[in-house]
Design a protein that fits this description.
5 helices; 16% strand; alpha+beta; 3 strands; single chain
Length: 139
């Protein structure tokens, strides 16, 4: 019985993560943390550009809060937005940048090498990038 509850809760969490990723894609969305308190559910959104998550006058964050209430049945959701201090050390953002560059037609080897150099300059201890699939040549 507990296993079903655990699986159900994680499915709900994955759907929420997917929704937030689509909603805040242009803001450089990375991930979210969910904390349940007796009074509310605090959702902390980590993004590269927090201003795009909040919106002009907080309109985007208010509409997102309403969607979370209605679609995901979260009682009293409170959205918190945190800026990612060094986006070059966040794997989700780096992967999106690499994918975007390859989709725009840049050479995948060059993109990966430049990305590795940028990450190492940002202070990482090490980095490994593995790209697969049909990357070069005709489609």
């Amino acid at each position: 019985m507990k296993e079903r509850l655990f699986v159900k809760e994680n499915i709900k969490r994955a759907e929420l993560e997917e929704f937030l990723d689509k909603e805040f894609n242009r803001a450089g969305y990375s991930h979210c943390d969910i904390q349940r308190t007796p009074l509310s559910t605090r959702i902390t959104v980590f993004a590269q550009r927090p201003g795009m998550v909040i919106g002009r006058g907080g309109k985007i964050i208010e509409s997102t809060t309403q969607i979370l209430k209605n679609k995901f049945n979260i009682e009293n959701p409170q959205l918190d937005v945190q800026e990612i201090s060094n986006p070059n050390l966040d794997p989700t953002i780096v992967v999106k940048q690499i994918a975007s560059s390859i989709e725009r037609g840049f050479n995948y080897k060059r993109v990966c090498i430049l990305t590795i150099e940028r990450i190492m300059r940002s202070g990482a201890t090490g980095v490994a990038i593995r790209a697969g699939g049909k990357l070069g040549g005709d489609k």
